[in-house]
Structure formats: C-alpha cells, structure tokens
Amino acid sequence: MLWNKNEKYTLVPYDLESELEDAVNEVKEALFGPNRIYLDGKKKIGKKGATNNLPDGYLIDLTNSQDPKIFVVENDLASHQHLKHIAVQILEFSLSFESSKVKVKNVIKEMLRKRDEDWATCEAFAKKTGKENVDFLLESIIHKPDAFNALLIIDEVGDELETVLIKRFKFPVEVVTLKKFKNDAGHILYEFEPFLNEVSEDTEKVDISEIDTIVVPARKDGFEETFIGENCWHAIRLNSSMIPKIKYVAAYQVAPVSAITHIAEVKSIEQWQDTNKYILNFSEPADKIKKVPLGNSPGKAPQSPRYASRERIMKAKSLDGVF
C-alpha cells in the first residue's frame, strides 16, 4: 500500500499481459530515460525451419556513443508464468536473434520508419558517431560480437528468478519491475526503478563509455579479510549488461577512513555461490593508492556499489571528482 493522510493506493495486479504492456507504454519516457527508444511492435524473428519467436518489443539504447545496444524485450506476469518458462523464452529469443540478424535489423528498421521522431533520433546518432545512415547504425549494433541483450519487464521478481537468469545465461539480462496501484477515485500510480538507474546516477560526471571501475563500500573487517586477505570481493549486485565494462574494483573504506584507498584489476566475475549476486576475483593483490577522501559532500559516500572511471579516481582530490 502507498499511503498518506489524504489518500491510499492499493496494489492492483495485472490480469493480462496486455495490461502490463499498456503500462510500459504509458511510463516509457520515465522508465527508460533519454537516448533510449522503446519499440513495442511484435514481429516474428528466427530462421525458417529453426527456432522462431515473437518478442514483445525492442529497446534501442543510445546512451553510450561508443557502444550502442539493442535489448530484446519480454513482458511477463509472475503470476502467469513459471520462472522456467521465462528462462526458456529468453533463451529462445537469443537463438532466434543469432540465426536471423538481417531479419531482426529489418524488423527494427520497419518499426522506426513509422516513428518519425525516433527515426530522427537514430539518424542524428548515426551522424554523430560516424555511421553513414540508420541502416548502417543498426547493422553495426546487431552484427557485432555478443550483440544479444535481453530485458525482462515483470510485475514482480524474486531472488530465485534473478539467480536462474545469472546461472543459466552468458549474455546480459536486465530485469525491471513495474507495479500498478490505484486509489478509491480510480487514480493510478506506477512503482518502478528506472532502467539502469544505478548507471544513470553515476554518469552525471563520467560518460558511460569511460566506465571501467566498480567502487564498493567496505567496512574494516570485510576490507582486511576479503579485499586484502582473499584478493576478491563477493556478494555484490551488478547490472548484467555492465559486467563486460568492469576492469577494476576500488575499495571505499567507510568511516572513520571515509576514502577510496585501494584499486585492484579484475580477473573474472562469476556468480556468487547459488545467489543473484557476483564475486569479483582479482588478477593480483590490490594496489594502495593516494586516498580519495569523502570531502565536503556527505551524500557522495557510497552506500552500495557505484560505477566510475579508474582514470578519474586516480586524478580526483575527493569523491566530488569521481561521481
């Protein structure tokens, strides 16, 4: 329930998947943010005689000028679909995508053609990044190695589903939850965390293309026993589509130190035990660096993992220069 002295909003389950799809379209600007285009047309993809699927849509992510992405979107209701069904559906999307990249490009291009504003956005991005036109832009995204990314939009997600998605797939799968609430007057509120919100918060000063480091808050005992003693950092939540960018992990020691003090190169990132979290294994023991203190902005102190740039950390005089 969402409540204040004047009114209360109660959770209203979606009865049909189409209701969730309508909700996504209603909140898409706030949900996905700028420089992302949501295309909700349903077109079958896949090679003739092989696996064929009907994705619910596509999300074109143009936030990173050096690495634009396309996410294949699946909208699902947790109450209607068993988690194994969701996992199988996403796997089949990946197979259809890989076997029919020309068809995928043509499907997305056809959708864009019907949306003048979105076409213009892609056209401007293509020009800015040295691509000849929208066709060549889509070609360069879809035909690059490891091009497949999935986005699951669901009304409720549990740890078990997230764990399965991490364990079963080598490709990125992002998950967004979208809930609907209604008051007695019939007014609607939607509850959601914006897509890749953690990344958006950390790119106010750092371009997303520069991100190569994850900054983790560490208490004294965990820092000494794990970060220094075991040359790793575990039980950390990460956005799966950001994992390929992470080359370093930096330790922010909480009060009384209140500073970034060490950086280590990341050798590998793996699932942490049988959970929906990860372990970052170091290539070698962490390097002690010149302290990057909290400074005069207490709100900059990391309460959870933060994305950053190693180069910016090494040059920063305080966390104001990092985030």
Describe this protein with a few key phrases.
8-stranded mixed sheet; 323 residues; ph1033 like fold; 2 domains; 9 helices; alpha+beta; globular
How do the strands and helices of this protein lay out in sequence?
Layout: E1 2-3, E2 8-11, H1 17-32, E3 36-39, E4 45-46, E5 52-53, E6 57-61, E7 69-76, H2 83-99, H3 101-113, H4 116-128, H5 134-142, E8 149-154, H6 159-168, E9 173-182, E10 188-192, H7 197-201, E11 213-218, H8 220-228, E12 232-236, E13 248-253, E14 259-271, E15 278-282, E16 287-293, E17 306-308, H9 310-315
Written overview of the protein:
With 323 residues, the protein is α+β, with helices and mostly antiparallel strands. The protein has 2 domains: 2-195, no CATH class; 208-318, ph1033 like domains (ph1033 like fold, Roll). Helices cover 30% and strands 29% of the residues. The protein is built from 9 helices and 17 strands. It has helices at residues 17-32, 83-99, 101-113, 116-128, 134-142, 159-168, 197-201, 220-228, 310-315; strands at residues 2-3, 8-11, 36-39, 45-46, 52-53, 57-61, 69-76, 149-154, 173-182, 188-192, 213-218, 232-236, 248-253, 259-271, 278-282, 287-293, 306-308. A hairpin with a 5-residue loop joins strand 13 and strand 14. Helix 3 packs antiparallel against helix 5. It starts with a strand and ends in an 8-residue tail after the last helix. The model has no long low-confidence stretch (mean pLDDT 92).
In helices, the fraction of residues equals: 25-40%
In the predicted model, the low-confidence regions spanning at least 5 consecutive residues are none
Whole-number total of structural domains: 2
Termini gap: 34 Å
Overall average residue pLDDT: 92
| Count of DSSP H/I helices | 9
Gross geometry: globular
Largest sheet: 8 strands, mixed
Beta-strand residue percentage: 25-35%
Based on secondary structure, the structural category is alpha+beta
